[in-house]
Amino acid sequence: MPKNKSHSGIRKRVRITGKGKLRREMAGTRHNLEKKPSTLTRRLAGTTEVAPADVRRVKKLLGR
Q1: Cα 42 to Cα 50: distance, rounded to the nearest angstrom
Q2: Is the pTM of this model over 0.90?
Q3: Are 50 and 14 in contact (CB under 8 A)?
């Protein structure tokens, strides 16, 4: 039986921490940043945790 492959799109978008939590980047930080207020761009900087409702689905796509 072949090995299961992890979902390549999710693999690029989500990082797993040492404790097993899922981290992702905030949406809305790729383009059109000139129009957005600097307070918004600062707030969207960095990573955040994946929503609890999505954790099970994302882990399944990652093959965990």
Answers
A1: 19
A2: no
A3: yes
